[in-house]
Amino acid sequence: MKNLVQDLKNQNFRHIYLFTGEEVYLRNQYKKKLQEALIPPEDTVNINFYQGKGIDLKELIAQAETMPFFSERRLLVVEDSGFFKTATPELAEYLEQVPDTTYFLFVETDVDKRGKLYKTVKKQGSVVEFAKQTEDTLMRWILGILKKEQKNITRSTMELFLEKTGTDMNQISMELEKLLSYTMGKEIITAEDVQEICTSQTVNQIFEMISAMAEKNQKKALDLYYDLLALKEPPMRILYLIARQFNQIMLISELSSQGLGRETIAEKLGIQSFIVRNGLRYARSFTQEQLRYAVETAVQTETDVKTGKLDEKLAVELVIVEMSK
C-alpha cells in the first residue's frame, strides 16, 4: 500500500492497478481516491465502469483503445469480473501494451496469484493488497477519528469496542458513527456507552456465549443462543463458531504454556491480540482436556444432526448445557 500512497502523493501513476484483499473499507476508500486523482469527479465521459462476471472482453479492450475526450486520461474500472480466477490470455496480452492515455483499475475479491493475468499486472502495473488491519493500527485510526470529534477514550474501553465490533473497518465505521451520536455533548466515552449502543457481531456474541459457559452461567449462555436464533442465525453455523472458538482457546492455551507472549501468539495464529487476551482469560476456566472435549463434542453433535439422530436446534442447546456445567 505504501507504493500506492506514494503514487497518489507524487501524482505519478501506473497504467494498471489491481486492488484486492479482505479489508473492503480501505479498498473502497483508495478506489475513490485513485479514481478522483486520475479523472476529476465532474468528468463522467472519460471513466467507464464494468461490474461482475460476463464482461465482454472485446468491448472492454475496444473502450481501452478509445482516445479520451478533451482529457489526458481514460480510466476503466473493472470490479469482481472473475478475470483473475480464470484463464484470460487475451487480456493479459493486451495489458502488456496499454495506450499511454489509458488506465485500468481492477478491484477483485478473488485472485489466483499463479495466473498469467495476475503476473502481468504485477509486472506492468501495481498490485495493492488490502489486508485486515492489526489491533494497534485500528486503535490509531479510531483515536484519530475521536480526536477530530474532541472525544477521549481509555484503552480498556477501546478494547471493549473492538471486541463488540470485530476488526472489519466498515463495521467499525458504522458503530463509531452510532457511538459518536449517542455521546454527543460528552467528552469522555465510557464502557457503559459502548455496552449500551454498540451491536455485537455474531462472532463476538459467540465470545460472550463462551464467556458465559466459562462462568458456568447456563442461563446467560442459552439466552445468547436464543438471541442468535431470533436473528435467523442457522444453528449449525452457531455450532461451528462455538467449536472454532473452543479450538482457538485450546491453541492459545497450548502456546501460552510454552512461554509465548500475547503478540507472538496472535502472530502465530493470525488473529488480533485482543482475541488472544480473551482466549487466555477463558482458558483459565477450562482444562486442556475440557477444551478438547468441547471441540470433540461439537464435531460429534454435527455428525448426529447430519445423520438425523438429533434436531439441530436441540443439539446445539445440549452442547451449551453440557459446557456450562
From TrEMBL:
Q: Which residues form the DNA polymerase III delta subunit-like C-terminal domain?
A: 204-322
Catalytic activity annotation: DNA(n) + a 2'-deoxyribonucleoside 5'-triphosphate = DNA(n+1) + diphosphate
Q: Looking at its record, which EC class is this enzyme?
A: transferase
Which residues does the UniProt record annotate as the domain DNA polymerase III delta N-terminal? 17-130
Q: One Pfam family this chain carries?
A: DNA_pol3_delta
Q: Which keywords does the record carry?
A: DNA replication, DNA-directed DNA polymerase, Nucleotidyltransferase, Transferase
Any one GO MF term held by the record is: DNA-directed DNA polymerase activity
Q: Provide the E.C. number(s) assigned to this enzyme.
A: 2.7.7.7
* Family membership: Belongs to the DNA polymerase HolA subunit family.
Per its record, how is this protein called by name? DNA polymerase III subunit delta
Species per Swiss-Prot/TrEMBL record: Muricoprocola aceti
